[in-house]
Queue: 4 jobs
Job 1
Amino acid sequence: LPNEASLQSARYHNSFLLDPDEALETAREYSAEKGLPPQSVSPEVGKLLHLLVRSVGAKRVLEIGTLGGYSAIWMGRALPEDGEVITCERNEHHAQVARENIAKAGLEKVVTIMLGSALENLAKLQPGDEPFDFVFIDADKENNLNYLLEAKRLARKGAAIVVDNTVQEGRIADLSIANPRYEGVRKLLAHIKDDPELSATTIATVGDRHWDGFTYILKL
Ligand code: SAM
């Protein structure tokens, strides 16, 4: 996994469901050209984020982990004119490439990059500011629980929170593997189990690189 059949299947479905989009394709290509790791979401997951943002009628979106801005562009495209994506990135080179990709997509007024440690930057945001309607967590997995708690603090009731890479080819569920990145996902799951204000499910996916998945969380 994935095999040629799963890639072919994704391409087949995408050919019906995803409109060709020059800015998004350029963002992926330019990010690769600039040496960024191939860690952005797949086109179909990008489209899912876009549809989810629209489904919850989101105006304010928070992203943790910008990379080259690929997922930020998908979500930015889903917002009304006065909408906003705030996206956190600590790597200056990634942020610079993202800025260029976001500008090429015409979203420089919609997407704001907060450069620096996400936890430090999130601590500066107040719940009294306009709350977030949608949060996408996709950065250092060790901090997943910290990010979830910050997302919960800063999001409105009914907000959706998506955490990426929560399956990792089944390694999260293999407790014989003690890796801080996997522990970060396990802690997240354990917290959700005991938090009456959150309800969630994990969906496994066959991506363009490997078998993984994401966890979809609703703030009740
Ligand atoms: N969401 C992006 C997309 O789909 O296009 C991919 C994000 S990539 C998986 C993770 C990003 O998080 C990297 O660019 C990395 O530099 C950034 N990152 C990792 N730890 C961070 C931290 N503590 N604070 C802010 N950004 C961080």
Job 2
Amino acid sequence: NIHLYVCRDYDTISKKAAGLVGGMVSVKPNCILGLATGSSPIGMYERLAEMYRDGITDFSKVTTFNLDEYCALSEENDQSYHYFMREHLFRHINVPDENIHIPSGCTQDMEMECQQYDAAIAAAGGIDIQVLGIGSNGHIGFNEPADAFIGPTHLVNLKESTIKANARFFQSEADVPRRAISMGIGSIMAAKKILLIAHGANKAKAITATLEGPITPEVPASILQLHPDVVMMIDQEAAAGL
Ligand code: GLP
């Protein structure tokens, strides 16, 4: 049930991915989009902004839920995922502010925040299409390799490898938050459709393990083998191990 597209380059992935997400919005104007951060979807977001500017896609009835957020960074911090989404997508399109959901990493009662986040997704009717990137260790959202899959939205201690990988966005490695809040594997798997985007040689191992390896919480993305409707758009470098 995984439809794999090996694309010529990142630009082709972005165009194709925006076509799929924009197509969903055209067919179902009040759809629920699950969105992701990281560098992988940036090109797709640029395309979606273009589609809005060109009058092709109208986001006025769309609702969005993001996968994750760092703990203890304010929403104004330029490394927060709130900031990222505003800069790369939301300020360029017409999705109403009140329809935008991103977990808060700064709430007093984090357990409550996690519960309420999953409840809000369910109340909205569930996610129609969930966009995912993938970490080089196979993480999705911030679901890190672990002994067991965690279903609901939850707090995460980031792995050393993820902190190192994300340090490039911060002044120093010490500035990278150690904790995050993330939709769980259950929250992600409940989406009706999943779109995973990956490019570059440093994703090749994770992509091979995801598609061809055993389903194991050591490679969180491998659970996607059990989802009924997954589309993966990757470039040749990310596909090198297949
Ligand atoms: C972060 C995010 C993930 C993302 C991953 C890969 O850890 N929490 O959602 O998929 O990084 O990021 P990139 O797309 O920059 O390679």
Job 3
Amino acid sequence: MRMYDLIEKKKLGMELTTDEIRFMIDGFTDGSIPDYQMSAMTMAICFQGMSKRETVDLTLAMRDSGDVLDLSSIPGVKVDKHSTGGVGDKTSLALTPIIASLGVPVAKMSGRGLGHTGGTIDKLESFPGFTTALPEEIFFKNVREIGIALAGQTTNLAPADKKLYALRDVTATVDQMSLIASSIMSKKLASGSDAIVLDVKTGNGAFMKKYEDSVALAKEMVSIGTMAGKKTAAVITDMDQPLGNAVGNAIEVIEAVDTLKGEGPSDFKEVVFALGAQMLLFAGRADSCEEAVKLMQDSIDSGAALDKMAEFVRAQGGDASYVYDTSKFPKTKYSVEVKAACGGFVHRILAENIGIACMTLGGGRETKDSVIDLSVGIYLKKKNGDAVDTGDTLAVIYANDREKMDAAAEKVLHAYEIAAVPKEMLPVVREYIY
Ligand code: URA
């Protein structure tokens, strides 16, 4: 078999066989297929697409390119959660302690931010000392003893995806449905949970900008998970504005902590509860969504979820006192308010532009080697549907560099779409896919 022939075949729109896909992924993982051939293949896939069967084959080949974790020694149904990536998406930070506080074990692999979307690991590293580089035995011990552990994608968990994602990221081939579905599901299947809940974002700040593409992606991933023997569900959620009010790293951690204290923004809490309810149903911890929501609310009201977050941060080397006193997080040198140039109603906040503005401040990663500034960020004072008068503060920018702050403020101002008439807003949680 020759990679050249496979590229030619895909270029002409033909289906690759199961063996051909295995050959390609095995060769790419061991280095015998070079990056330039794999880049040509991913670009051909972008133009020609992949069938459902090819997508499943690609997922399983990437899953099997490294270790497949066995979590069976941990009692209980292990439920994983994954987001397709968004702006202000700090869902895992609040959701995982809530779920763990209800006795459902959470063994989670997370990623770092890249491009305009943030990553859970970077955000958690705002706690001084916090690490996700956990040896396997500590990861297992923490899940068993405190019900929660979060690790970075190790080099040997779906290494083919790790390599392929890095290549796609620099060759403009990220936003292809089969490539996204196989990338996410290969990692989820390799990380060994019994059930998977997917948060599929839709809108301007999502990889899938069109609603029907988001639904198609969700269906594709649910069918891959189900076919691989895992209970899988997806929730389609809005990304036509950032989630919650905070965008950055430490600033998002503070918002997640506030949510665990019962003080978070309502759209964020809605997404956390929608995903959490599916997790609790899969784990058999609740029999209905209503019961699940009540359990989660009780966990917040009693302080159990907040205490679980502190326990989790401490167990991974972080300073848990920050959970109880968020004023300890470092402050930026400068801040500026972005004022509305006209009155009306907010129709849309281009989430991608807000994500890019945060990256401009140094809060996101332009290349995979960028060092990020955890203290900078953007706080949105006005969200979709809100009435605005000329001169009202739309957002506050927190920065450590004046030039970057001015550039970000300009971007944030232009990210707001304000019109004279109010517009009916769609709910943040759009649809469930089983
Ligand atoms: N997240 C992933 O893990 N992979 C993709 O391809 C896109 C988002």
Job 4
Amino acid sequence: MTARWFRPMSDAELAEAAVDLFRREFDRGPDGVWAAPGRVNLIGEHVDYAGGLCLPIALPHSTAAAVSPRSDGLIRLRSTDADRWDGRLEDVGPGRPAGWAAYAAGVIWALRENGLLTDDFGGVDVAFVSAVPIGAGLSSSAALECSLALALAPEADRAKLAAACVRTENEVALAPTGGMDQAAALLATEGHALLLDSASSSVSQVPFDPEGLTLLVVDTRAPHRLVDGAYGDRRAAVELAAQRLGVGSLRELADLGSDGTDAVRSLQDDVLRRRARHVISEIARVRHAVRALHSGDFGELGRLLYASHLSLSCDFEVSCAELDNAVESTLIAGALGARMTGGGFGGSAIALIPPERVDEAIETVRSRADERGLTEPAFAMVTASPPARRLI
Ligand code: ADP
Ligand code: MG
């Protein structure tokens, strides 16, 4: 049996597929086609709500939006991955509509709320085609939002577009996410990871070109689990730990170095102590990773990836059998490092691995998943790719 892959589409393939869908659905051609990528976070997980740092790259997998404006107040949305949705501009607002249309129509609402779209905006027809796996923790939602946001307000400042897309996700789709996904989709650049500081909302580019190594993404395709409470629970623990330690956010302690680590040790409650230890140590690991990338030390980056995984698995307790299998199996096969990426409990993992070890790594992940009765994973080899852009 051959391995299951999720392949990127080239810009030309994406544009053609989006134009085809648009023509089929709307009996005319689009005015243009825009695209935005998914992302993987190299390191810096579950620290955004503690004012931490993260380091995503844009994926070669993108979502394309073929778009034409209307003048009658209608919004018509099509996607190869979802049911048709037709509505009116006034149908869109906080918490509505439900379902996938929230992520697309919500962009129009958020752009208007944030003053990036004029009041005389008259509606739009959109056809989406995506190469980003949906719900795999690779940020198909932000890819969808950002492709449309750039189409509707191509001249706007990209950081402002990202903020509007975060509002879409938080206030219309009612998904509690930080700003990493949208920042990566709009602001990451080819050959670089994006260092994002949640405390200041500042971003900078860090070279990411692991020459001679492959970054393998493993989409575990783990079944959806009822873990809705887990994100809120972890967030509450991180906030309570900060409160007990008398700081506004754990970032303040992370910035103190070993004094911050000592302060965390003073927490009496074992669970709170472990949650806080993850946050403080993860922020330190992002800083080390940035230094390792600047000096091209991928051995060190690999060690940091695995340390991050152990911290997420043991201290923060957000991993699962599928993610642990992806990490352990790639390490057994010779990866320099590997970790779960994204919120956890499923989704995807990454491994930094010599190219001649990739086949063995994939086979090891697959056979051990099979032995354990886990879903067959899917794979992609990725590089730090371009951000949102106009295709035609
Ligand atoms: P992720 O962003 O990690 O893929 P999310 O749960 O944040 O997972 O977002 C997935 C949701 O985004 C889907 O359930 C759907 O509502 C919407 N979505 C993303 N991409 C598409 C698409 N191409 N077509 C339709 N809906 C999409
Ligand atoms: Mg998402």
